[in-house]
Request: fold
Amino acid sequence: MGCRVVCGKLGRCGGWQMTESNDVQPRKLLASASVKVKIAVASGLVLTVGAWLAPRAPQTSLSVPQERAAPLLEEQVQLREINRTFVGVQDVAAPARRHSVAILAPAWPAAPSRNDYSEMSGAVTPVAGFGVLVSDIHVLTHSAALDGRSSTDVSLTNGQTTKGQVVAYEPQTGLVLLAVEPVAGQTSATLATDVPTAGALAVAVGRSADHDLAVPVFVTSVGRDEYTIGVASDVLVPGMPVFYLAGELFAIAAPVGRTVRAIPVRQAAARMLARATRGERRSSFGLAFQVPSGR
Reply:
C-alpha cells in the first residue's frame, strides 16, 4: 500500500497515522489572469481617489512686486547653470537704457614716458557718471558725476556726443539738471508715482559707447528725502538712474563709499524743471585739497 505522511484524511500504515493521497496539486493563490487585472484596476482607482481627496494648500495670487521680481529670481536660477542663456536683468534694463546718457569726464592726455618731453598726444575720455532724460532736452544726474564742472560732454542714447550745460542744481540733494541739444527720437523716462518699499528689487542702468551696464539692486531703507540701496557685487557709478522692474524711473544713485544713496526723482525733477523754465540758477562753491606728489 503506497502511503505518505501528509495532513488530511486519517488512515493506518505500519502503525503510523497516514493519509491517503493521489498526488494533489497545490492551490494557486490567483486562479486566473482576470483576477490579477481586476486587482490592478481596483488599486489604481483607490490611489486616484486618495490623491483627489488629499487636502491641498490654497493657491495664492502673486502680488505686483513678486511678479516684477520674477525676472530677477529666474536669473539667479540661470546663473547656476552656465550653459543656459542669460536673461532677466538684461531684459528689464534694455528698454530703460534708451533713456540713459553718459556724463563724460574731461579728456586727459596720455602720460608721457620718463624721457619723452614732446607734446603729449592721444586723449582718454572715461565715463564720469550717468544721467537720465527727464524731458526732451533735460538730463538729470548727480553732482558727483560733474566734479564741480558747470558744463560737460554728454554721450546721448544714439551715441552722439553733445555739450550739456547746468541749468539747475540742488545742494541739499546733490541733483543737477543739464540742458542738451534736442535729438530726433530722444525720449524721456517714465517717472514712477509710488514710493518703493524696503526689500523691493530694482535695476540701475547706464549706457555709453563703451559702457552698457545693468546692475540689480534692492532697496534697503526708505526715508523721506532719500533711499538707500544695496548691491550684491557690482559697483554703481554716480548718476545712474534706478528703475523699477516695470521700467519706471524712481531714483538717481549717489554712491558715497560703501553706502549707496538713492535720491527720489519725481518731485525733484518737477522742482528743477520749473527753475530751469523760470531761468532761476542755484549754485554753490567749495574747496578741494590735493596732496602734491612727484614733480
Remarks:
- The domain at 88-106+125-280 is CATH 2.40.10.120 (Thrombin, subunit H).
- Confidence is low (pLDDT under 50) at residues 5-21, 81-87.
